[in-house]
Amino acid sequence: MVVEARVMEFLDDLPSVPRVFGVFRQGQVCCMVQQFIGNTHNMSSTTLQTGRPSLSALKCMSMTLEVVIALNAIHQRGLLHNDVALRNILVHHNGTKYRAKLTDFGMACSQQYPRGNRQIKFASLDEGLQFHQDYPDVAPEKYLDGACDSVKGDVYSVGHVMKILALSIRSREMVDLREVSAAFDADDRLSLDCVINILKTIIENEKINPTCRGFNERLI
């Protein structure tokens, strides 16, 4: 947890990363004190997996862009998140508007010294498909080839986030973007700079010609 706190401290100036104030020990338990992320009116916290507020399609797209920009900034500082998922994206409301905050840096590491992964030998195709269904945000090269954590692995994970949110608001453009950002072959995945530029274009088009619906229910 101390390492996680140090990583968050290093990313303290990024608007989509919670601020951390310190770490302390209470008995045998190590605790981290960080910025409260949630609804400041009722002091409740939700992730994009456990519950989502009623949001317009445009706001959903904007929050997706916030997460991708944050992840790109993390990569530019030489780090990998390694656990980008809906469960690790908190919905923050500051009394005026909703923002997305990327959390849980417990698996983060340096790009220079990436963590290795265990190759899994599946007994059957069905077993492999079941694993992919259970862990859809994990890049396939990690468990099929034992590949190390990488920028491309993070891109795959954020691509899965885009897919779920795109299906929620029925955005064909975002679904298509996910297909190329989370391609099965790591070499075919787009860079985050490219994803950001395409997302910005999708958002501008949605402003001019709204075609998607907002969401107010949990679809996963």
How would you briefly describe this protein structure?
The protein has helices at 2-10, 57-76, 125-134, 140-144, 151-169, 172-181, 192-208, and strands spanning 20-26, 29-34, 46-47, 79-80, 89-93, 98-102, 109-110.
Main attributes?
alpha+beta; 7 helices; Transferase(Phosphotransferase), domain 1; disordered C terminus; globular; two-stranded antiparallel sheet; 7 strands; 41% helix; 220 residues; three-stranded antiparallel β-sheet
| Largest sheet, spatial ordering of strands | 3-5-6
Poorly predicted runs are 216-220
Q: Could you state the CATH homologous superfamily?
A: Transferase(Phosphotransferase) domain 1
Shape type: globular
Radius of gyration: 18 Å
CATH-scheme architecture: Orthogonal Bundle
Number of structurally distinct domains: 1
Give a quick account of the main beta sheet: strands, pairing sense, barrel closure.
3 strands, antiparallel
Q: Strand portion, in percent? A: 5-15%
Overview of this structure, please?
By secondary structure, this protein is an alpha+beta fold. The protein has one domain (37-208): Transferase(Phosphotransferase) domain 1 (Transferase(Phosphotransferase), domain 1, Orthogonal Bundle). It contains seven helices and seven strands, in the order H-E-E-E-H-E-E-E-E-H-H-H-H-H. It has a three-stranded antiparallel beta sheet. A two-stranded antiparallel sheet has the order 1-2. The chain has a two-stranded antiparallel ribbon with strand order 4-7. A hairpin with a 4-residue loop joins strand 5 (89-93) and strand 6. Helix 2 (57-76) runs antiparallel to helix 7 and helix 6 (172-181) runs antiparallel to helix 7. The relative contact order is 0.15. Mean pLDDT is 86; it is low at 216-220.
